[in-house]
Specification:
single chain; 224 residues; alpha/beta; Rossmann fold; 8 helices; 9 strands; 22% strand; globular; binds guanosine-5'-diphosphate; binds magnesium ion
């Protein structure tokens, strides 16, 4: 981040004393180190409000908890509803962050939340980011991979409108395939936009109500 002042004599850059991007990267690196030390594979699950993030995480927890110690951190502006929806699916620990207005999670929030995770026995961590396709894309959490989730109900242009999120994703999940026709969305459009932006990036189509495609997401993340 840089700060400029435009004056009649010209534009000058103002020294803000700290390189904010470098500081954010330091904080992400601290998480990476923590995950490495504890043997945790962590995933940042991003997407708009209602895309299906909690549904996907609940489905993955159900599938993985027999052979993995799974931890979940759910981020929302308010309420503990998402944590409650995941509880009972077999996760070893489910924690909820309320950001109180902030539209994304950041690395230091996740680091502090990790103090409440058991120090051993967790080897997979799903972090549900705040529902938003914009802000979270600029804040690295120091995870192994970011999953960007979109759903048919967000329209056909959602990927091209939010390039930063899809530039930083390791996997894209296209959810609510069951309602594409009802909302008049041709899913080949977002897939083509993604292919133009990130040739070869894997896209998994899901219906998180029936569970269709969730096994493929688990496999694509190398957790099968
Ligand atoms: N039709 C349909 N509804 C879904 C699907 N996945 C999730 N939903 C519903 O969409 C709503 C939002 O899902 P949720 O998992 O809370 O989304 P989040 O806000 O991204 O965490 C809920 O009512 C889900 O039951 C899907 O594949 N198809
Ligand atoms: Mg949710």
């Amino acid at each position: 981040m840089r700060l400029f002042e435009a004056t009649e004599q010209g534009t000058v850059e103002i020294e803000i004393g700290e390189d904010i991007e470098a500081r954010l990267e330091e904080l992400a690196e601290r998480n990476r180190e923590l995950f490495r030390e504890r043997g945790i594979r962590a995933f940042d699950i991003t997407g708009s409000v209602g895309a299906g993030k909690t549904s996907l995480i609940a489905g993955m927890v159900e599938r993985l908890s027999g052979r993995h110690g799974v931890g979940v951190i759910a981020g929302d502006v308010a309420t503990t509803r998402d944590a409650e929806r995941v509880t009972g699916k077999g996760a070893r620990k489910v924690l909820q962050i309320n950001t109180g207005g902030m539209c994304h999670l950041d690395a230091s929030l996740v680091y502090r939340t990790m103090e409440r995770m058991p120090e051993s026995g967790i080897d997979v961590l799903f972090i549900e980011n705040v529902g938003n396709l914009i802000c979270p894309s600029y804040f690295s959490l120091g995870v192994e991979a970011r999953v960007a989730m979109v759903s048919a109900s967000e329209g056909a242009h959602v990927i091209e409108k939010h390039p930063a999120m899809f530039e930083s994703a390791a996997l894209v999940v296209l959810n609510k395939t069951d309602i594409a026709e009802a909302v008049a969305v041709d899913l080949s459009r977002p897939v083509a936009d993604l292919e133009a932006m990130r040739p070869g990036l894997r896209v998994v189509r899901t219906n998180c109500l029936t569970g269709e495609g969730i096994d493929e997401v688990v496999e694509a993340l190398g957790l099968a």
